[in-house]
Amino acid sequence: METNEKWWQKHRLMIVVGHFGSGKTEVAINLALKVAEEGKKTAIADLDIVDPYFRSRECAEMFKEKGIKLIASAKDFIDADIPAISPEVALLFDNEEYNGVLDVGGDPSGARVLARYKHKLDSEDIAVLCVVNANRPQTNTVENAIEYIRNIEFTSGMKIDYIINNTHFCDRTVKEDILDGAELTKEVSEKTGIPVVCHTGSRDFIEELPELEEPYFPIDIFMKKPWEM
User: Fold this and answer.
1) Distance, CA of 88 to CA of 178 (rounded, Å)
2) CB 186 within 8 A of CB 195
């Protein structure tokens, strides 16, 4: 990332994938907010047909207030865990006025949604971002993380462009979690050739963290756990 251009400004469309518990949806929401803050016409597409709990469509009112277009399942199916994808997704491909974030399902089954749109995405200015949480069993070792990434690539037919270290332990996260994730994702990057684009976490850690090789992207938490609903 040698230029003054920020990493989230480099592509018109950003596709966010990640395993259950990685914080993928939080990252997707914060990315959409960041893009909108820069005055760009922004849309976020909730394409997660796998995880019934944490979905970006839960923030519909906030997106409306921020001028962000939400593309999600039809209202009649908003609480249904079925593969109902809004035809409005085509808006992101056909209308280049929009900058978009696509929040995609957190396992290889969910990544099949990408395969459905691959013929469109191949001709677009996109980046596929894989969110990794080193505290989750699916990606708690370098080998597991690489296997997860390769499964997503195989299922979707698309390459992961960047890795995001979002290592956390919910409200018990400490700065050491982020640093441990930085070490793991660095090794994953060295073995796969996929660059780590940033580290994410609470704004509270900005002053506590030592200088990292990649930028720190502070995020706010919007998703409520099922028992908090």
Assistant:
1) 36
2) no
Are the CB atoms for 52 and 81 separated by under 8 Å? yes
SS3 197: strand
The rounded distance, in Å, linking the Cα atoms of 84 and 191 is 37
- CB neighbourhood size of 20 (10 A): 16
Mean pLDDT of 169-179: 93
CATH number corresponding to 8-222: 3.40.50.300
Going across the sheet that includes 216-219, the strands are: 69-71, 42-47, 99-104, 13-18, 126-132, 162-165, 196-202, 216-219
pLDDT value for 229: 43
**Counting every residue, how long is the chain?**
229
Which string of b and e fits 83-101 if b means at least 16 CB within 10 Å? bebbeebebbbeeeebbbb
Q: Which residues contact 73 (CB under 8 A, 6 or more apart)?
A: 46, 57, 80, 84, 85, 86
Classify each residue of 73-82 as buried b or exposed e, where b means 16 or more C-beta atoms within 10 Å of its C-beta. beeeeeeeee
The stretches of the chain forming alpha helices (DSSP H) are 24-37, 60-66, 89-94, 108-116, 118-121, 142-156, 175-192
Region for 130 from its dihedrals, namely left if φ exceeds 0, alpha if ψ lies in -120 to 50, beta otherwise: beta
Q: How is residue 225 written in tokens?
A: 């756990």
Q: Per-residue pLDDT tens for 105-142?
A: 766 667 777 777 777 787 778 999 999 999 999 999 99
- Domains of the chain by residue range: 8-222
Note the pLDDT tens digit of each residue in 200-212: 999 999 988 988 9
